[in-house]
């Protein structure tokens, strides 16, 4: 159970990182226009 919990936490964190990364990319695109 502990391992599954750690995996889930890592999965959530990586998802948030991707989400934030996408927002940063969108901001850059809007700023260049």
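^ structure tokens above, recovered residues below v
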């Amino acid at each position: 159970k502990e391992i599954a919990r750690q995996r889930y936490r890592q999965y959530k964190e990586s998802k948030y990182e991707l989400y934030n990364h996408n927002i940063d990319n969108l901001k850059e695109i809007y700023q260049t226009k």
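Helices lie at 2-32.
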